[in-house]
Amino acid sequence: MTGPAHLDSPERRRLHSPSLVIVETIVTTVGEDGSVNCAPMGVEWADAFIVIKPFIDTVTYVNVSMTRSAVVNLTDDVRVFARAAVSNPGVSTRPAEIVRGFVLSDCCSWREVEVRSIDRDPPRARIETEVVHRGFRREFIGFNRARHAVLEAAIHATRLHLLEREYVEAEFERLQVVVDKTAGPAEREAMALLRDHVQRATRAVEFE
Ligand SMILES: Cc1cc2nc3c(=O)[nH]c(=O)nc-3n(C[C@H](O)[C@H](O)[C@H](O)COP(=O)(O)O)c2cc1C
Question: Is the pTM for the entire model greater than 0.90?
């Protein structure tokens, strides 16, 4: 299956309420053993509630199902998206104010949410949550093409098992041009990390 077909699948259309914008966030959750999990998630955003839509094979789904809570972090540091897309990075956090969870220490702002309902229909759950607390740490420094390009590259990096190699390589070439034009050091570092991850994954497949 190629990228564009997958991104526009009937499943995706069914799950997205067109009246709500999707915001790219870092969702932090807590596991049974108390460990913090950090994952990029595009969530449906409204002021008083947020819909999280994790695939049911993700740690985020397992943790939110168990604790019935999460922290939805907003950050303009795309290195966190890149790192969390390819691993569970050991980022600095501090305890949430209300829910069982953790806030990214360097986020711009955050929402603490409690689960109100879970639709567990595979492959992707739909978890409706209510915002029970919100906090602000620093200004979100606005739109940037390189940041957007890194987010797209990070999504591809999490879907290597679904996408054709030629498609991923072409996309990385295209997105790298945008990064080269408009990135600062953080965006360049994030893109390099993703490129490295994709190259390693491709080499691993070749040696199988
Ligand atoms: C910008 C961005 C948005 C993403 N949105 C989602 C999402 O809404 N649902 C999902 O299951 N995965 C999403 N992913 C992929 C997950 O972040 C990825 O599968 C991650 O490894 C899941 O982590 P976890 O198993 O630790 O929860 C997204 C990735 C990126 C880079």
Answer: yes
